[in-house]
Amino acid sequence: METSVVRTICLVLLVMLGFRKVMRAKLSEQTGADLVLLLSSSALATAAVLMPEKPLLPILVPLMLLILIDRSRLWIDHFISHGSSYEPLPHYVKQAKKKETEKEVYMPRSGLALIEKGKVRNDNLARIGKTQFWLRRELRKFGYRNIRQVNYLTIDALGNFYMDLNQFMH
């Protein structure tokens, strides 16, 4: 039991210090190589803790090698960037940022709130290129004449409305 506790503390500190740059970065800024190195090192550390009867040295050598590889990122980045397209893993995040800079409408998965607490969100209307007049006309199509009848209204990327009605104004 004591061996597992000591190993856990030492290996957690070693992984945290060895991969501190990777652990500080956002997921969208990490590359596939970063994630592979981090997951491999955590698997080695887990194996060392789960098997306290085995010697630590055969696990420390590959773990230190992974840390060494991560530390020599300039050389590896230079080598990989000339060989293939080198792009961070979640490329959809970059695409979303690119769309926002190109003045295209970026619609979050949950939709864009157009009315909150019975009040129109003019900033979000402007993001989709619509006016309050358009919103009032759309609400009239559903039979709502007063915006205060709607507590919350969102629009998704396909143009579907999702609304929560104000319980006092039915």
TrEMBL record:
Compartment(s) where it occurs, according to its Swiss-Prot or TrEMBL record: Cell membrane
Record keywords, A-Z: Cell membrane, Membrane, Transmembrane, Transmembrane helix
Keyword Transport carried by entry: no
Membrane topology: Multi-pass membrane protein
Residues annotated as domain YetF C-terminal: 112-154
Record's keyword annotation contains Membrane: yes
Source species, domain of life: Bacteria
Family: Belongs to the UPF0702 family.
Name by which UniProt lists this protein: DUF421 domain-containing protein
Organism per entry: Sporolactobacillus mangiferae
